[in-house]
Amino acid sequence: MGAKVVLLDMDGTLVHIPISIAQFLSNVYHELGLYFTVDQISSAREKVNKWWDEEFPDRTLWTRQAFIKSNHRLLETLGAKGDLQSLSERVQSHWDNLPEETGEELYPEVITVLRELRDRGIVLGVLSGRILPMSLRSLEMHGIREYFRHVISPETAGAPEAKRSLEMWRFALNKVGARPNEVLHVDNDYEVGVVCPRRVGIRSVLLDREGVYAHIKDCAVVHDLTGILDLL
Questions:
Q1: Most C-beta atoms within 10 A of its C-beta, which of 85, 109, 117, 149?
Q2: Which pLDDT tens digit goes with each residue over 177-230?
Q3: Where are the domains of the chain?
Q4: Hey, what CATH class is 21-101 in?
Q5: What is 5-16+105-230's CATH number?
Q6: C-alpha to C-alpha distance for 220 and 206, rounded to whole angstroms
Q7: pTM
């Protein structure tokens, strides 16, 4: 399974966040003098997420101002008092620092694998559903930005449904300047990370860290990133 280019997902592939988003928000609200339980926040987020999916189905429109609007909606749903616009903007400042504030962690084998792939002359890229600033912030925080020639996100690719959009994969092929059979994508999500790129001819490796994809037989499966070294 040779490849000139390897594209890697972010969450669950390169990094993971060890606390829930509800816990992160509880910490943020506490710092702002707002006191809501994790359960209250989780329940409110379910309602706001439904609104968000209707209001912003196009991932290319996920701007900072859109996120502030979502923060405002969540505070309203929780019954927060005070200047909600100002609070929403302050909450967003914490979201901007999500990797640091959640204690985001790099999987232990990542740097070794990236170094080996680079030494083999393979071009590396990140292809993630995250907005671009968040991907870049994580890569910089973990000291691995230098390994990646390309960082691809829904808004840069013009992909309304992120990895579910053919635009995401077509943009990636154009960006890296390679044919589909020269590109390998590594992802921990079978539906969006294996099935979707297959539609444009890109091969994928399914990263199954938790052993939940034992039934998958139509693609290569590895249990940590070191597994891809034997496939290339």
A1: 117
A2: 999 999 999 999 999 999 999 999 999 999 999 999 999 999 999 999 999 999
A3: 5-16+105-230, 21-101
A4: mainly alpha
A5: 3.40.50.1000
A6: 6
A7: 0.94
